Amino acid sequence: MLYKTLEKEGYKDFVRNLISDFEFVGPKKKDRAVHDFVTIKSIEELDTDYKRTTIPPAKKILFPPTEELVKYEIRDGIKIKSVVESSEKVLFGINAWDLNAMNFLDKVFSVDFVDENYFAKRKKLIVIGKDCEPTETNFSLSMGAEYVKEGFDLYITELKNKYFVRVGTAKGNDILEKYAEAKDAGQEDFKGYDTYMDEYRKKFSLKAGIKSFYDNFELIYDDDKLWEKIAENCYSCGSCNLVCPTCFCFNVKDDMELNLVDGTKTREWDSCMIPEYGLVAGGHNFRPTKENRLKQRYRCKLKTSLDKYGAYGCVGCGRCIEACLAKIKISEDIDLVKKEVSV
Ligand code: SF4
Ligand code: SF4
User: Whole-angstrom Cα distance, residue 246 to residue 104?
Assistant: First the structure.
């Protein structure tokens, strides 16, 4: 890792240069409270001082809500053509927890199989992260996701009078050399960065006892009454899945043209919280109740993921807490396990 600094004016020139030379995706204010990552055409549109984005930025690009995978033609035989789309883009301004979520998806889409559609886009994505402040529903500090060590080409932190830049890849270094006038960070810059990080970590007010949840989950797994209580108000709407930067379940559906010759296979996000998720042929449902679905969601994110991928499937972004009309809070439920096992 190399450490560089950029002067404030130099930073603006750097961003302008990237906007002019690349397809540049960054945060833009959508309304009073929410930003969205969209294609940015001028620096005036870019607003990296965001707090909330509903759709997670990396997932939106790499694993979009719907995506055509295959085109086929059925005449004498079957002709199949895979659809793999990718183009070079800069993803600018993604924060640490969303970057950790992208790193998690990198694992998901490469451990059991290498997902060609995902990685074609991932390889062409130039990732430039930037710190931003957490919301009151964010418990990333407890999940170890408030800081990101890898997955980015460049990562920018705004200090009082300059920007501190961590250079994660050779590609990031080339971009910095070509488009900015960066200097090597000195002792004072490291001091400034450490002070910033100390203050930044104090801003994560919401905490969750994840270690205790992980250690004790199996003890409360069969406590039906507890899970009924936790899921009591759940509407099984699936909103928590749709906003989550780490949820990766999808369905693949066939669409046949009326000529009965041409067709496509498309994948679209699925939700483990809706009743149809566990429904199979013959009408049997493996997860018929909302408490069972919520329990499995937590198990997948907070236990199985760590065992299988070496990282939690939750970065503590708080989006599901804000999206849930039933006011179900994953952070409180994580703590509930500790309370249950200690009584
Ligand atoms: S968003 Fe809330 S109500 Fe909807 S499925 Fe998730 S936990 Fe249940
Ligand atoms: S489970 Fe909730 S808090 Fe955790 S990463 Fe997903 S949306 Fe964020």
Answer: 7
